[in-house]
Write a structure and sequence with these properties.
It is built from seven helices and eleven strands. With about 240 residues, it is α/β, with parallel strands linked by helices. It has a single domain (about 15-235), classed as P-loop containing nucleotide triphosphate hydrolases (Rossmann fold, 3-Layer(aba) Sandwich). Helix 3 (about 115-125) runs parallel beside helix 5, helix 4 packs across helix 5 (about 155-170) and helix 5 (about 155-170) packs parallel to helix 6. The protein is globular and about 50 Å long.
């Protein structure tokens, strides 16, 4: 088994938020999903987010992945203030700098593993050596011999490996994972975590949501969330 701790993080911040908040309006009701969340994640760090359902973990992950926009506060990604970027610029950041891994694998059912992994490159347009790069990503996750299989022909663990290959095919600086082991048995979940640890040892910065304290031990540190707050020693920051 790989050591729970991945590569040693560097002091350069990759992700930094300052009083980040997200409020959703539901008619006359306002839902404060995230409240004044400030954090810093350094290059090559592996961080987990833990908390009960509704604590704000997924909301924070979506903001960090440029899938949503904050109501207030600031988000600095690799030195760039995200709220100053145009919609097209944010889309480019999502495609080129961030890899996503979700609990639900989100694979296209009618195409092969190779084609699923190729999608981020195809979205960019006019990419060279797409199939070669997708094949290399599948080989990296140990699925080079399953490249032509469709998702229905793969186990849950294999499907998640395809999803990870898709996340890393663009060589992103950051991997955001939302309960990546949530639909897997414990043995397969450990295999996925060992793979993520290897990627971290190779330099990837990883921020992961989990409910499982055992899974959290793979990270360098764990942040706890409650009622939209990031807690510091049990107290909202």
């Amino acid at each position: 088994m790989i050591s729970p701790k991945g590569g040693q993080p560097r002091s350069d911040p990759v992700i930094e938020t300052r009083s980040l908040s997200r409020v959703y309006s539901m008619g006359s009701i306002e839902v404060h999903a995230l409240r004044d969340a400030s954090l810093r994640v350094n290059q090559s760090e592996f961080v987990t987010l833990m908390g009960s359902s509704g604590s704000g973990k997924s909301t924070l992950l979506h903001l960090l992945g440029c899938l949503d926009e904050p109501t207030s506060g600031s988000y600095i990604l690799e030195g760039r203030t995200v709220e100053r970027l145009t919609r097209n610029q944010r889309a480019r950041v999502r495609n080129e700098r961030i890899g996503f891994v979700f609990q639900i694998f989100n694979l296209l059912a009618r195409v092969s593993a190779l084609e699923n992994v190729s999608l981020p490159l195809l979205y960019r347009g006019r990419q060279k050596h797409v199939k070669e790069r997708a094949a290399a990503a599948l080989e990296r996750v140990g699925l080079d011999k399953r490249a032509q299989h469709k998702p229905v022909e793969l186990s849950g663990g294999e499907q998640q490996r395809v999803a990870i290959a898709r996340a890393i095919v663009s060589n992103p600086a950051i991997i955001l994972a939302d309960e990546p082991t949530g639909n897997l048995d414990s043995r397969t979940g450990d295999e996925i975590m060992e793979l993520l640890t290897e990627l971290n040892q190779e330099g990837s910065t990883i921020l992961m949501v989990t409910h499982d304290p055992e899974i959290a031990t793979y990270a360098h540190r764990t942040l706890h969330m409650q009622d939209g707050h990031i807690l510091n020693d049990g107290v909202a920051q």
